[in-house]
Amino acid sequence: MSTRSTVRLDRRIAAVVTLLPALGTVAAIALWVVGYVPGAVELIVFAVFYFATALGLEVGFHRHVTHKAFKAKPWVRVALIALGSMGAHGPVNWWASTHRRHHSTSDGDGDPHSPHLSGEGAGGRLKGLYHSHMGWLFVGESTRPAGWEKYVPDLYQDPLVFKQHMAYYRWVWIGLALPPLICGLVSRSWMGVLLGFLWGDMVRIFAVSHCIWALNSLCHVIGRRDFHTTAHDRSRNSLLLAIPTFGQGWHNNHHAFPASAFTGLHWWQIDPGGLFVRVLERLHLVYDVQRPTAELIEKKRIAP
Prior knowledge:
Elements: H1 3-33, H2 40-66, E1 71-72, H3 74-85, H4 92-104, H5 121-133, H6 140-143, H7 153-156, H8 159-166, H9 168-187, H10 190-217, H11 239-242, H12 251-256, H13 272-282, E2 286-287, H14 294-300
Antiparallel strand pairs: 1-2
Helix pairs in contact: 1-10, 2-3, 2-4, 2-9, 2-10, 3-8, 5-10, 9-10
């Protein structure tokens, strides 16, 4: 497939991933307004699949595969990558490459989704926020620049990760099939199937996606900086996004210590993803868990 054809395909996929969940969410709300209220089953399915996919993306795709913050038993690795794939954010090797590019050039030239490279003034800031949130998905230089694979040679040489990378669309379809199937079987109705699809698939993907995209946009504009990072990086911490993103809302902490399995560096910084890693560590399912030393934390801390 030519580069031009690949970019066109990427844009079509981006349109589906951004527009379809949004339209599905509008439809779910419209049905609620006219009386088709989601029941306990639909809400439980939404919560369970939100938890599973957000956890897979943050702990699996992000902390484990991209940053190698811990090692894990093979079946745990497969489970985490499969759950992350159900979030429909792209195959794991591509996702990791994009994120490694972001860290290597954060908020500087080459960053695929910085909010600070779209001009000055209110118009430039708004354009930058849109680009960093979801607009970058439609830009070929951001999604698939020449040589993007060079950021993940280790992942292409990892048979388990590469196999899951190639199985991406299978996991997406499984993730889409399960919620309506479960809701339909429990309710024994086609309305259950429809509500399961809307709440367990469309609303869930919409919510997970916008929370994660907000890390690229809002968490590089609004919030507190506690640690020194790279030259151009403007990452910030956000309590508001910490819980729905399983701890990645502590974004400045993460940029300061990207290889750490934990983003919450104070007792009050809630890090659900880090808590999950601790549980897995206690169960001996993960090992070689990376933590920043107290000395390194103090060295990078911004003086009050």
